[in-house]
Amino acid sequence: MEICKVFFHLSVSVILSPLQNYPLYIRSVPSQSELKFHYTVHTSLDVVEEKISTAGKAMAEQRELYLGLLYPTEDYKVYGYVTNSKVKFVIVVDSSNTSLRDNEIRSMFRKLHNSFTDVMCNPFYNPGDPIQSRAMFTMVSGLKSDKCGWLV
Amino acid sequence: PSVFIADMADEALFQFLHNEVIQYVNSAESGETENGRCVSKLENMGFRVGQGLIERFTKDTARFKDELDIMKFICKDFWTCVFKKQIDNLRTNHQGIYVLQDNKFRLLTQLSTGKQYLEHAPKYLAFTCGLVRGGLSNLGVKSIVTAEVSVMPACKFQVMIQKM
Known about the structure:
Chain B: It holds the Pfam family TRAPP. Chain B: Its main location: endoplasmic reticulum. Chain B: Keywords: Endoplasmic reticulum, Golgi apparatus, Neurogenesis. The complex is a heterodimer of chains A (152) and B (164). Chain A has three helices and five strands, in the order βββαββαα. In chain A, strand 4 and strand 5 (88-94) form a beta hairpin. Chain A is of the alpha+beta class and 152 residues long. In chain B, 49% of the residues lie in helices and 15% in strands. Chain B has helices at 2-7, 11-28, 36-57, 67-83, 121-138, and strands at 89-92, 97-102, 142-148, 155-162. In chain B, strand 3 (142-148) and strand 4 (155-162) form a beta hairpin. The longest helix of chain B is centred in the first third of the chain and has 22 residues, at 36-57. In chain B, 37% of the residues are buried. Chain A binds chain B through residues 1, 18-19, 55-56, 59-62, 82-86, 113-114, 116-117, 120-121, 123, 127, and chain B through 48, 51-52, 54-56, 58-59, 61-66, 138-140, 164.
């Protein structure tokens, strides 16, 4: 599966491969900060794995991976989402962006998931390759501009 | 699930298209007396389709508890979405081998109701084997899927889970 990292305006989205956990799509708006997000996201993977493995007991919802503050350093909030196909999505948001509510994050994940499903169904896409879909790019830009409104 | 059924092309359309694909792949391999390459091409096609399909089908479902849960999903929801019916019988030895029995496999019903054309059956099952393997693969389950027919249109798909 793919890891899609989309870095928004002060936030980062990442989609991670189910097996090897490598990123398939990375985009950062302030592109110079992309590198430091890699570290943040990879550390968050441990928490993601932990959550998945303990979810076996109750029929946990597939999107119940809102990790909230994974770790309070670097003033980022990291949210996670794992599909049934073991694709992991991670969104990193700047903590100063406190106006972002839980359901907004959920809807961002929903859009990411929908776009990802479309990419999967695209015959020109080979699973495991980096995502180069323009539709994905446009959707992600859309998410970013939604958030821009909140950053005022 | 009803949303997916509405989205799926008409059942007959899929069957006809499937048969044409088999004819096409078969004729592309003309000169080869064995079915081997034809079958593996079809299986690989099914694999890629299965990957995409399962991504769509599991978009809104709850997380699967375990391997058996996944197999049940394949037998019920997945089979229903693709073939408009469920698998009739699922057996397992609880050690990674599952046998899915379809007593009236949709892609075989037009061929015969007995032993006629039995030797051609593998070609007609290859795509579906790939479909299951692709679907399972994207759910994190590596497997080998084979199929056998003794009396049409009933057939059995055997899924062997591979430990990663």
